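Example record

The entry below shows one chain as it appears in the dataset: sequence first, then structure tokens.
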Amino acid sequence: MFVWMPTEGARRVRDFEKAPHSYWERPLKDRFTQIKAALESGKLPLDHSSEKVFVTSLLKALNISPATQTLVYSTTSLQLRRISPRNPRALYFNEDIYVGWVPGGQIEIASIDPDLGGIYYIFDIPRVSGPIKVERSARCFNCHAEFEIGRIPGLLLKSVIPGPGGGSLESFRNDQTGHSIPLKDRFGGWHLTGKHGITQHWGNMVGELSPSGLKKYPNLPGRQFRWETYPVASSDVLAHLLQEHQVGFVNRAIKATYDTRSALTKGDAKETIDEHADILTRYLLFADEAPLPEGGIEGNQSLKAHFLKNARKSAQGNSLREFDLRTRLFKYRCSYMVHSAAFKGLPPPLKEQIILRFRIALDISRRSPVSLHLPDPEKQSIHRILNSTLRPYSQAK
């Protein structure tokens, strides 16, 4: 059997590349790989008339809303030489695929495989209609599989103070992702647009070192670049919050998958399974969610419409994708990411324990520490939604 291996020069072999994980040998089941052949052969029709139009047509083929666009101008990417406040990198996403694009540069893909986590691709945007050569990259591991996310192939979000050229002068929350991070510690190196009441954050600014210390200056969206370069004229606050929540879950789920697989191979996995089941249950039920600012946020209307279009509903018509946006992200505090590839790929013994914890947490006759923040009517609604849309939950005794 032919096994593809990276050819990017001598490098150390990471634990997730070895047995029992065998990152490079396992067959891929992520969503982008499933369409890769059609993209390369031209069977997936894309518009090549301009970079922006090509990106927009690619997003449509991946069922990703352009309104998920977030713009980052710190040089925190494989294409760092192309990124600056004058040429921000754009990110787009759905629950299973993350797309990065730097104008004048390449397309980057992080596609979540149920068993393996992040599968990373990069390719040039063709100048004319023709074949596309998609490269599966190991270079992405230099950031996407380091200590900051537990040395597993996950996702990365940073908050930094960039200098005038985009290089990082100061960084924080490097080893943390997810919805528990206070809003004041987010958005550094990113543009932030939309209606919100977040008064303290690190977005929309650059810094400069001086003898008296670090000085910060505003870098307003659209001041150093043209909005017309990008598919939409926004880097919306709701897109940022959704992206943070998803990345936090995906990283926890991938770490749990790898740790549990290793423990099962060694024969005694109970402690590992219990630890990760507790972490994931707590995260999925938003037990530690940072509150929204007074007055809440509005959110891009196109983004909200596309997000709700993909809802899986209960018999009563409710879904985990219904927004609150006044004090918290969602009306029903159980993550829609239970329908994602990262959740589906959790090892069965671990998933069984999460489902068991869900049932205990949502039982209104019991007081579970993980769901004390949920009033009984909300617990009952979440129970009905999961019972209608999540087979492992409905089949559990």
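Notes for this example: The chain has ten helices and ten strands. The two ends are 42 Å apart (CA to CA).
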